[in-house]
Amino acid sequence: SKPIVAVVGRPNVGKSTLFNCLCGQQISIVKDTPGVTRDRIYAEVTWLDKSFTLIDTGGIEPDSKDIILSQMREQAQIAIDTADVIVFMTDVKQGLVDSDAKVADMLRRSHKPVVLCVNKVDNFDKLMPDVYEFYNLGIGDPMPISAISKLGLGDLLDEVIKHF
Ligand code: GDP
Ligand code: MG
């Protein structure tokens, strides 16, 4: 069967926006117990000569830092358990936050291939300097993208399929 790629990251970094722009067709929605954060949406993506299944992990609207962190840990654990490659998404506008660092540690310890993606880089010339701080996560080169403007997506996908 096809490799599985999961997108994880803080709420509102743009995971679903990326998912929607990459997916040709949505193949299924898996809902677990209402109120918990386990809804998963799967799509088929083809890039160059490679196809894979992309998973978007949804979530409730968190209202505290504790809930955000526990939700991110849960997403990351799902990704570690099920994915071949994990795309860890951060947000250049929010900058590097504590929960990013905690989840990055968890992903690093898993020894799964991780592609670090920095979203909302809507203007590469202006915002690239802000991307460099994400090197501090210690999980590799940050790949700048703008999911809304569809910038950097080819380079991101190239990086993802290298791991298959
Ligand atoms: P998720 O919670 O991680 O799934 O985030 P969403 O995909 O729902 O996006 C959260 C918000 O960020 C929405 O208002 C999006 O329109 C916005 N957003 C997503 N991608 C970008 C981007 O590349 N640039 C900017 N400026 N906003 C974005
Ligand atoms: Mg979402």
TrEMBL record:
Residues 3-164 form the EngA-type G domain. It comes from the Bacteria. GTP 1 binds at residues 9-16, 56-60, 119-122. GTPase that plays an essential role in the late steps of ribosome biogenesis. Belongs to the TRAFAC class TrmE-Era-EngA-EngB-Septin-like GTPase superfamily. EngA (Der) GTPase family. Associates with the 50S ribosomal subunit. This is GTPase Der. It comes from Lachnospira multipara. The gene is der. The chain holds residues 2 to 165 of 442 of the full protein.
